[in-house]
Amino acid sequence: MLTTLMSLGRRLIEIRRFVVLSMFFRHVRVLPLLGAALSDGSRGMRFRVRSTVGSMVAAVMAVGFVSFMPTGFAQQPESAASGPPPAKVALTGGRIIPVVGPEIATGTIVVEHGRITAVGPTDEVKIPYDAMEVDVSGKVVMPGMIDPQSWRGLDVSNENLPVAPFLDVYDAIDPSRLYFEDALRDGVLAIHVIQADNCVIGGLSRVVKPIGLTPDEMTIAAQNGIKMSITPKRGFDRMRQLTTLRETFAELDWYLEQLAEQKYEESLEEKEKKIDVGPAEARERGKDLIKDEDYDDKHANLMRLRRGDFGAWIFCGAAMDVQPGITLATDEGFLDNAVFILGAEAHKAVTQLKAAGRPVLLPGNLYYRERDQLTGELKEVFIPSEIHDAGLMFALQPNPGGSLAEAYLNYQAAMCVRNGIPRQTALEAITINPATMMGVGDELGSIEPGKIANLVVMSGDPFDFESWVELCYIDGILAYDRARDYRLEKQLELEATRAEQAKAEEDATKGKPDDDDGDDSAEEGDEATSEGASAEGSSEEGDGDGDGDGSGESGDTGGGDQ
Amino acid sequence: MVPHTLVIDTIRFGSPDWERLARGGVTTVFASPDSAAVIGPRGAILHTAGPWAGRIVSEASDVKATIGTDTYSQGGGNNSPYRNYVTNRTRRPNSRMGVAWVFRKAMYDTLRYREGHELEGTDVPDAPAMEVLSEVFAGQIPLRIQARQQLDIATALRVSEEFGLPFTLLEATEAYRCLDELKAANVPVIFGPIYTDPSGLRQRSSETRESRLGTITELLDAGIDTALSAQDLREEDGLIRQAMYAVRAGVEAETALRLVTEVPARMLGLGDRLGTVETGKQADLVVWSGEPLEATSKPLVVMIKGSVVVDERAEG
Fold first, then answer.
1. Owning domain of residue A514
2. Residue B150 distance to chain A (closest CA, Å)
């Protein structure tokens, strides 16, 4: 009862926020503006924090937001730059972690038209004369991190049909979700949006970037994978789950035979011949006559799955689900494009996983704790170590339901390092590995010439929790600047006040009654009003996050075997 | 109103939670009562590992009071003792006003008790409770008050001023909204935990939905005597991670380390025995695999009173 009420309350808050957002959306006109509005930030690379009303508006960070502010607000001297974003950008002086290949202590990255064209030590890389140079000295540049599966970007995490391969998350991605804004803030620049685990066969997934106002603008790769669950869907038991899975593919075979027979008959009719063979032979002869457009939606996607057109993301919530999953994938011919998503206990089937040799996606909570039922002894297993020792490729996902730190992918990787996994492996698990699993390994996941320029500039080492994401480049365009992150600033409320104090002290010591003083008092007034407003806003935000997790959890429990 | 009861009587030394704490590098704990009573039991100070008898540092330590909704809105789990018979016709609190009244009545009763008056009426507190609260008044037993929201912190400050009772503020999630008042009252704060999603008791009380990362820095900047606590949270939200969050919020690493060692030891009155590595102090030491506050470090060896209680070198 209580939980129902709570979720209802959260729902209401969600609705209210949506109303607020849709008020903003009325101002949406042109998206290309966003590049212009943001590109100037890196030109000056100003890390100072401004606190006038206008800059607060500019600091509302989700890229989309900047572009749909009413023009009156946006006309800041700093953001008055017009025209397209720079086609060529060079990030110079930073420590580069390319993930593929050794680190570069002081390097330069050249980006042209959204792609990386050169990476190397600063003295070796030639910067094009017309490139915009951004000095990132003292900072660390790494490829954008990748969230290998998320349904937090969907309006509802599961469709309540057991077998629904004809669905596409395209229809359910909600670009206004705060989740996407958070992803940007955390340096996650590609997200595999896929339905949750409460299904037998789910809809098609999509790889998106956390900016854009429509799913089309956000898309990096469409129709990327298909979710499949061996762990029973809510209301199913394991026998029914597996029977439904086998039945689906048996029905596909039957459908193909019927279709082949029909096609053969049609071909005879065209030639005005009579049926000359029995059904079995007709089916055999009709096989090659089937064209892609002949399949209906459901069977088309299952066919494409068998053919290896997209990945099979197979959820195994418990260790007992692993072998049936491998068997099914082998029997139906999609083992070569399968990724196994492990639940908390599924790592126990590491022998079977090793035999299958397919990449695995680890659960958000990386520790598995179990009390021995007889001795009462507490056993703690660090799951990535088990998987790494088996020599399997693995990817990490954030754990938003866990601690504050575990919501960050780089912290998840740092935990791996803490438990003895090599630094390079841990880095790969949040960048190139998920990219490879999603089939976009040649586009994303490392800093190499030819790849999409999704770059994260951090204030320090990514495995140091002290480090903050300073800048994010998506397709070579500045998409996030911490100095303008209004929400984060509110969360911390530090630098603004400190900068103001420092300035006030400075002015006091100088004792000169210049224009700045006047500005100061105005700023304080604005601060005061915004303080009151944000107090409510921030609590709403917290609720919103909770809601996102809530839906995720409901998906978990649905698919999980608790 | 149960300050004469003791948390030590309900400690389960065999609980695996102790082992988890020790493995996380925590050597000494103030085992606190939960927040079900306005004036709750007295906590105990315990070591996390070692022979059971040797673990007890103090059997009866601070009295813990709670200002807020926890005392009347919690249900289920460990907090159901009153649930079945609390109605708005009983003398138990049903609102924040009621909570403040229970607190005040206890204090008035204590004052009368100390002056030698006989207590009369239908709701006379137990004499042992009066003895304990008398000692609180005399300054012999420290008082800690849990308050999360701004209004509860304000109430705590108000009642303590009324009775001239010094106290330590617990949790203080919304301390950022009353920094000046806390500073003026010179109240030490045991802040924390820092979290994004409330879990456990906090989730049920729904008093605060998040704890702002910057609050710890603001408390320190305001010059308020602050320690950090993880309370019921473990492992990745545990004590050392709380200090790590403080560093992310802009606190110097050395200061953050003090917040979970030297400062809490002093607040528990054990500053002469615990909290720093100095000649003459108790050998409660942790060997870390790297800088303690780095995300990639973990405790390798934990030593309490000079004997090794956790050794993960062989495993790692």
1. 2-83+480-559
2. 12
